[in-house]
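Form 12-C: Joint structure prediction
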Amino acid sequence: MEQRRAGPAEEAGGDEAAEAGEAGCSPAAAAPEEPGGLGPPARVIVHVDLDCFYAQVEMISNPELKGKPLGVQQKYLVVTCNYEARKLGVKKLMNVRDAKEKCPQLVLVNGEDLTRYREMSYKVTELLEEFSPVVERLGFDENFVDLTEMVEKRLQQLQSDELSALTVSGHVYNNQCIGYKTAKRLEALGISSVYDLQTFSSKILEKELGISVAQRIQKLSFGEDNSPVTPSGPPQSFSEEDSFKKCSSEVEVKNKIEELLASLLNRVCQDGRKPHTIRLIIRRYSSENHCSRESRQCPIPSHIIQKLGTGNCDVITPMVDILMKLFRNMVNVKMPFHLTLLSVCLCNLKALNTSKKGTIDYYLTPSLSTTSRSGKRSFKMKDSHMED
DNA sequence: TGGGGTTAT
DNA sequence: ATAACCC
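Section 2 - Result
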């Protein structure tokens, strides 16, 4: 079950937008209102789903790759590949050995650095925002655009004979996907298909999953998704991560953290906003529970925040120090440890100079008002795991 | 299973 | 801080 949208995740018509060209694009709800004004209020939402996005970026960067079976590799995984590779049996998220076995001619490029993909991704979003500012991103390669207003304006300009000649094609729902956890719980209830979900007792489902999830997924099972398209705007967080077989000393951790932080600071610098919170995330080695992560976060001291726009050199050391404190808060370094992932996240982004001091807003915004200013310390205590 | 993201609790 | 979801 697709969580966010009822729109097709992988395109109705089968093989992934092959006919459409590069992008899968499907109107998600149509049928303009009858002249009488009856019927449900129609929305026009276009779902733009770019296929094998990373591979396409690579082929644009290096046109010699076009026409060859191409895979994008992260660690020992082929995370995506172009159509040539797919024809030869390569699948998304296939491991490199299997992929090479299936397709010995496969050309692999390393895609662990997401910079160019991220840049191209935002170019796509910005392009769509020219049609309507209401564009919601989902990952790097999907966008939902609410074109309702645009379509209504155009319809008003049409003559009536043109209007009657107009056909609006609908929407195809496919029955697949359910998030992993919810899928397991539904399966325990005997629900394994969309039809099962449609016909299942609402009351029992609400009791099992909570009213919010239950009502939403059951509506989705009928292809009904009234959730608004929420403009994504600029990102709420920046993070960089690296996974590896083994990292087991403080020195290694520090080196990795420095690398991650350096890239992050460049990104944040370009963005222009200032992060007010920093977080360190780790994954410990374990045979089971592979996806579980732990994190610690704390506020970024204001004197560091102020230096952020300028040269990053003077902030890197104090920030690494903070991250190492967070690290030691999570991991007892006197004991042996084995990490398989490190990630640094900068979040709680604020446009600088939004200090509304002196404006009326300053006194009207609770978080800025004097009463909660005295609560500043308790905020810090809640947010931080470090003694100051 | 990568290297990202978001929202809810 | 974590858990769940998305790609």
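Section 3 - Comments
Residues 4, 73-77, 79, 93-95, 111-114, 117-118, 137-140, 212, 232, 235-237, 239-243, 290-291, 343 of chain A lie near DNA strand B (CB under 10 Å from a C1'). The first helix of chain A runs from residue 53 to 61.
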